[in-house]
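Moderator note: this is an archived Q&A kept for reference. The question asked for a predicted structure of one protein chain; the sequence and the answer are reproduced below.
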Amino acid sequence: MLVELTPSTTEQTSLRFILELARALHAYGTPAHRLETMLIAVAERLGLQAEFFSTPTSIMVGFGTSIDQRVHLLRVDPGAPNLGHLSRVADITRALLDDELSASEGLKRLNALKSEPPRWPTWLVVSAYVLASASVASFLQLRTGEVLVASILGLMTAGVDLFCIRYRAFTNVREALAAFIVTTIALAIDVSTHSGAGYLTSLAGLIVLLPGLTFTVALTELSSRHLASGTARLSGALVVFLGLAFGLALGAKLGTSIGLFLRDAIDLVQHAPLVGPVLPGWAEWLALLIAPLAFTVLLKADKRDAGLIIIACSVAYTVSRIAGNATGEELGAFLGAFVVSAGSNLLGKYLRRSPMITIVPGLLILVPGSIGFRSVTSMLGAETEVGIAAAFRVAIIGISLAAGILAGNVVMNREDSSRM
């Protein structure tokens, strides 16, 4: 009796490990094509016949042959990138594939990972929002005072985000609420001071919420023939853009009215000191150092990966900018994504780390979320043709980024069982 029970117990442990691994990979932001590839490799290593189907809101796992198959449905929320946990999950998976870890021990480590406290304190997360907004304002070549305004707007976005985390009833209106508050403040300052940078400072303040990365991942999944997941993720990105557009429209109306009132009441001069001098040339390169540090905190990466993230973002931005100036931004986006993807896979191979640690922040600095934001603002301003043209540019640049990611994977031959 005991001899018959042992294989059954071992198999049940293996099944539980695969299900928990699937949930963990999804929760920490793994795209469908990478998630399914990893799970297939783990199932083969454990001697199980399994099939997997992943979408942004569910995972279906079928164990056994087609006739005797048992199907498990996991209801999950769309995962936000958590590079620190994703790195740990990759280490657990790699150890199991290399026969250095059993399924039962791997299950214990996955459960322990879920109970760990937040990697970064709240004050540092809020600071990362502010620094990310200030960095984007520098990339947009705004003036000194406008960078200060963008930093304050980033602080407002952080406050809305933390509020929605605490009161989950507001989660579904997070983007609209943040866009409304940020745009109201930005347009009030813009109109009252004649700065002319209201929408740009709004963009910088909301940059963390823009779904450019989700949009690019969706196109990558569609390109790799994961049509259900890619379509659902693309739809989710479009819904976020619509939420931002709704908040933007309301905030622009209210902010303009407040700005006109302040201008008449306080009688501000036309060129207010708030605008300030033009940023020096080195400010953009300083921002290129600060932005990856902010991404390290916002993406919940480990301290040890901060240097790699800085390198990945710097290389991606520099290659994309140089190539974009020479040949056009579409090819610049492709080459930037290609270099990040190929370089990350190369580092992952020799450092035995997940390449997503540097792929995600490298893409984050390239994604076309800002162009999508400008498309929305143009349409709201009755500039329909400009808005449609900007939306088309978003699609082209997104496809270029997806092609660059896939090309980098092919060149580095990452279609193997250890791929993460």
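Archived answer notes: Residues 1-7, 415-420 have pLDDT under 50 and may be disordered.
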